[in-house]
Write a structure and sequence with these properties.
The protein has a three-stranded antiparallel β-sheet, with no helix packed on it. It contains no helices and three strands. The chain is globular. With about 55 residues, it is mostly beta strands. The chain has a single domain, classed as Single Sheet (Rubrerythrin, domain 2), CATH 2.20.28. A hairpin with a 2-residue loop joins strand 2 and strand 3. The structure holds zinc ion. Zinc ion binds next to loops.
Length: about 55
Protein backbone atom coordinates (compact mmCIF):
# COMPACT_ATOMS: atom_id res chain seq x y z
CA UNK A 1 0.00 0.00 0.00
CA UNK A 2 1.39 3.39 -0.92
CA UNK A 3 0.85 6.85 0.41
CA UNK A 4 -1.61 8.72 -1.81
CA UNK A 5 0.33 11.91 -1.18
CA UNK A 6 3.94 10.96 -1.75
CA UNK A 7 3.77 7.34 -2.93
CA UNK A 8 5.97 6.08 -0.11
CA UNK A 9 5.22 2.54 1.02
CA UNK A 10 3.06 2.35 4.12
CA UNK A 11 2.82 -0.95 5.91
CA UNK A 12 -0.76 -1.69 6.82
CA UNK A 13 -1.39 -4.98 8.59
CA UNK A 14 -3.52 -7.33 6.57
CA UNK A 15 -5.93 -7.58 9.46
CA UNK A 16 -6.10 -3.85 10.07
CA UNK A 17 -9.50 -2.80 11.24
CA UNK A 18 -11.49 -0.22 9.34
CA UNK A 19 -11.06 3.09 11.06
CA UNK A 20 -7.54 2.32 12.21
CA UNK A 21 -5.16 5.20 11.77
CA UNK A 22 -1.84 4.89 10.03
CA UNK A 23 0.73 7.56 9.38
CA UNK A 24 2.99 7.83 6.38
CA UNK A 25 6.58 7.48 7.57
CA UNK A 26 7.74 9.75 4.81
CA UNK A 27 5.47 12.79 4.68
CA UNK A 28 3.72 12.23 8.00
CA UNK A 29 0.22 12.33 6.57
CA UNK A 30 -2.40 10.51 8.61
CA UNK A 31 -4.73 8.06 6.97
CA UNK A 32 -7.68 6.07 8.09
CA UNK A 33 -7.93 2.49 6.95
CA UNK A 34 -11.11 1.79 5.07
CA UNK A 35 -12.37 -1.44 3.59
CA UNK A 36 -14.11 -1.46 0.30
CA UNK A 37 -15.19 -4.68 -1.30
CA UNK A 38 -12.74 -6.73 0.73
CA UNK A 39 -9.70 -4.70 -0.14
CA UNK A 40 -8.03 -2.10 2.01
CA UNK A 41 -7.72 1.50 1.07
CA UNK A 42 -6.45 4.63 2.74
CA UNK A 43 -8.61 7.61 3.37
CA UNK A 44 -7.09 10.87 4.45
CA UNK A 45 -7.85 11.38 8.12
CA UNK A 46 -9.73 14.64 8.21
CA UNK A 47 -10.48 14.65 11.90
CA UNK A 48 -6.94 15.44 12.89
CA UNK A 49 -7.29 19.02 11.70
CA UNK A 50 -4.67 21.07 10.02
CA UNK A 51 -1.89 20.85 12.53
CA UNK A 52 1.09 20.75 10.27
CA UNK A 53 3.35 22.22 12.90
CA UNK A 54 5.14 19.09 13.94
ZN1 LIG B 1 3.39 10.13 2.35
Amino acid sequence: MNCPECDAPISVPDDAAAGELVACPDCGADYEVARSGGSLELKKAESIGEDWGE
